[in-house]
Structure prediction request, 164 residues.
Amino acid sequence: MNNSGEKSSLRAAFPFSGICIAMFCLALLGSCSVAKSVRRGFGGEIPFTVTVAPDANENSAVAVDVVVVYDPIALDQLMKLPARKWFADKKQFENDHRGQIEVQSWEWAPSQSVGEQSVAYHSGARKIVVFADYLREGDHRAALDPQQPFHLTLDTLNLDVRPQ
Prediction:
């Protein structure tokens, strides 16, 4: 049998192979890990939800900063800062690390109902660091994967951040 005969018998034996390959590729593109890789490569927005306890921050509003970090040195420095120091020195830190971090800020009152929020980021994001400005001393800081949606709880004395 010649070469063209072999090709036609293969096509006859596997008539839907092209369709199957295309469906496999689409399923792969829709998978979570591929979506994360695409977001990591191009950036995007990560949704997050917020719960504010009725007695959050000892019945006081809580300022929250979400810092998208692109530089490993800036990340190391941020992970050593308690929230109080972050909020006191934020402007200087932003000036010292221009282009290496992006800051998005909110403030929520106890019992406030908060709709879904999102954090915008660009290609190359390494971590998201969340700071909450509580009245009491403490780190009041959490770090997470920049491609992972999360839930932020502002409780009486501290924040809690969990992947969704």
The radius of gyration is 23 Å. The CA atoms of residues 39 and 147 lie 7 Å apart.
